[in-house]
Specification:
Chain A is an alpha+beta fold. Chain A has helices spanning about 15-30, 35-55, 95-115, and strands at about 5-10, 65-70, 75-80, 120-125, 125-135. Chain A starts with a strand and ends in a 9-residue tail after the last strand. By secondary structure, chain B is an alpha/beta fold. Classes of the chains: A alpha+beta, B alpha/beta. Chain A: Keywords: ATP-binding, Kinase, Nucleotide-binding, Serine/threonine-protein kinase, Transferase.
């Protein structure tokens, strides 16, 4: 089970909240301070992308963020419920605006993959999921 | 934190001082500001990012959009940034090759191609 779960209406103003919560939980989980900026940026990118996908496809469901503390690692899953084509799939026939959306979407993914070493992107007819994982250092005051 | 924007003119350059967080929520305000400046005939822009705490790909998209607009008028868009965490985003997206990035506003204002 996720340590902390967050669901928010697919609105841009809530992405900041998701960034703050994710960074706070990551810090508690023992993610290195130097990496927290990357966590903040990566989760923001994933959430912005999900918000865009929901808005563009008229999905009213909330965006889901799961912050998962595990042994020696911390993962963030950002799930959307937008039906989308496979990555790199057919975009022919799309108008210019759709192309711009695809470009923005890819820019977000480019930032995520540039930032996070361990990232998995899965998409399907019922939505997509981005899972990002960072190593954690055991807390200095770990209980025996 | 919200986005703060202020503009001033230095010679033939327009300096846009940006502060706060540029993300999916606030980026439209920056886009509006850049569009307005270009529409008003300001084609040589210097965007001072020293007060920016956070920048994501939406913000990058707005800056690239601004660059396209000024280039259509043979203008320029220069950035001022010394913050490693912001520079890193330009590096991983390859945009350091697209934007001239300066360490001070004075340097950016004085720069010519």
């Amino acid at each position: 089970m996720a340590t902390v779960e967050l669901r928010f209406s697919a609105l841009p103003e809530h992405v900041r909240t998701a960034r703050l919560v994710a960074a706070a939980v990551a810090r508690r989980a023992g993610v290195d301070e130097a990496v927290l900026d990357e966590v903040r940026l990566a989760v923001g990118e994933a959430c912005s992308r999900a918000v865009g996908l929901h808005q563009n496809s008229g999905v009213t469901a909330p965006v889901k963020v799961a912050l998962i503390e595990e042994e020696k690692q911390f993962s963030i899953e950002v799930g959307d419920e937008a039906p989308h084509a496979a990555p790199g799939g057919d975009t022919s026939g799309a108008g210019q605006e759709a192309d711009a959306e695809v470009e923005e979407d890819e820019m977000g993914l480019a930032v995520i993959s540039g930032l996070v070493d361990d990232v998995e992107v899965s998409t399907g007819r019922n939505g997509g999921l981005i899972r990002m994982t960072w190593p954690t250092a055991p807390p200095a005051t770990a209980l025996a | 934190m919200d986005l703060s924007l202020s503009t001033r003119t230095v010679g033939d350059r327009t300096v846009v001082e940006v502060g706060g967080e540029i993300d999916v929520y606030t980026a439209p305000k920056l886009r509006e500001q850049l569009v307005e400046l270009v529409n008003d005939g300001n084609f040589h822009l210097v965007v001072d990012m020293e007060g920016v705490d956070f920048l994501d790909s939406t913000g990058l998209g707005v800056l690239v959009g601004g660059l396209k607009r000024v280039r259509a008028h043979e203008g320029s868009l220069r950035l001022v940034c010394n913050q490693e965490r912001i520079l890193k985003i330009f590096r991983i997206t390859g945009l350091t090759k697209v934007f001239p990035i300066h360490t001070t506003v004075e340097e950016a204002v004085a720069a010519t191609d």
